[in-house]
């Protein structure tokens, strides 16, 4: 619940988006405040400081007072992602074992579309002339075959200097066994060129797979010289303004880490913003009473889908960001181009499409009045009455229905021979279906029964799609946070510090291994504990999670299982077979199993901000603040619909659909045949209406 009565100590989450920088301040007793400030791409630090200043002003404080009484400040940003996508990273030189400089460009040969043999791969981040081999060789067992040649390293350094290289990535064969040659190479470089950024693959991604290691360390070197100075500058400015605690940065694994850790592994920031949703999902799980949740965060350009099963958010070991492989532990987020700015268009065959192009923040939807002329999802929502014309996004934008109607009429309705309403409704249906399919990708296609899950509809646009998507999927319920429009910033207030450590461990699974496997896990766990201890965590505040990557011989992709309950061979086999059955529909009875690697996730536990719970009053069906014509769905059509001000709804209140709820950061739609109730934490739960009208 958003309120002005916020008392210290404070927790702050700041999330930089393309248009707005979101901030959530959580105080004692779970009191919350949300604020938005325009993002400043030319200097992102300014946008962060402006957001903090705006929140402080809304609380009747100055910035210094707010920061002095802040015990936790967590920041998420798309700075690393944007650096990669926009091609604005550092000029990188790559050092490889002699004869292997082209592995980065050869890749694995896999394509997103196996039938598309014509579309080229994106160019590698390092051109061939800056990929140089050096004399050295370590075998698969970690033994030195050819010593590292100092002269070959120095010759490469001279080439890099002449070419204006800003960062050097090092990836030698079998460095996952021992990074000794990579470290020696780095020492030689730093001896003669101390100011250059150097990154070793054995430190960033110590895994089998030369291509995956080289691609990951190259991305780390590419974004590092851009990300690290920004983080250090922001921390210095916040400290100068009174912040007494270290600034924490959200990583792709959903946890946070201090600036020193992230500056060394900046590739961990690639999913920094969306991954913060993990903290929000866990928090809201307590309010829903469910440990099986799937969230859709629908913003201006995209929809991010994340699944939590039995209280555990699904993870992945490898990301693909616009064709660039990044092999790091990450929250498994399925992203599609479905947001408020998604453009609708009609192709030459007369087929209506939603996306993939988006209008962006500028010019944005036609309704914004910034010069946009293409019809977007936001324009369709406005034409259908789901959004009201006038002030939008806290008054930063004025929605013009006439401009929205003109764009849809010209580009959709006329080419399709439909009415204005039919064309707008068609665009909404397409986006609903796209989101539905995205949820199915992470649930049904992974062997989960989506009917067991509660759907969290978040993001500024998500609550307008949640009711329809949840109904189509058959979800148990749809949950809408009151602060849906600042979902990730809120999640940052409820995140743990997390360190992931991985080690290759290629062995056949048999009865002789448990002791050796246990010893290997303990060694990696000690490294993870030490990393968290350096960030100030006591032993009793550290939680450890074990994972083991297993496969049948000949398989390309392993299946990672949790193994916190023991390392007995039969126990591991049963867990692997159950996971293989769920994912692929079969397993090999008594088949040989290989272990590829072990993983340790170490969390420095930070207590969640306790929600401000209110004892629900007697059942109340409040009167709406007004009514307007709204298109609800195909069955209902356009009807005069009750419009409720979310600020007036309190725990225990119920609203029968169809209805629209206006909130500070979002708008929520309740369909016919559904009913909404306000939870003890002040959020919204949408369920099928009961025939007797009971809640």
UniProtKB/TrEMBL annotation:
It holds the Pfam family Hydantoinase_A. InterPro entries: ACX-like_C, ATPase_NBD, Hydant_A_N, Hydantoinase_A, Oxoprolinase-like. Transmembrane segments: none annotated. Residues 213-500 form the Hydantoinase A/oxoprolinase domain. GO terms for biological process: glutathione metabolic process. Residues 11-192 form the Hydantoinase/oxoprolinase N-terminal domain. It comes from the Bacteria. GO terms for cellular component: cytosol. One of its GO terms (molecular function) is 5-oxoprolinase (ATP-hydrolyzing) activity. Residues 515-677 form the Acetophenone carboxylase-like C-terminal domain. This is Hydantoinase/oxoprolinase family protein.
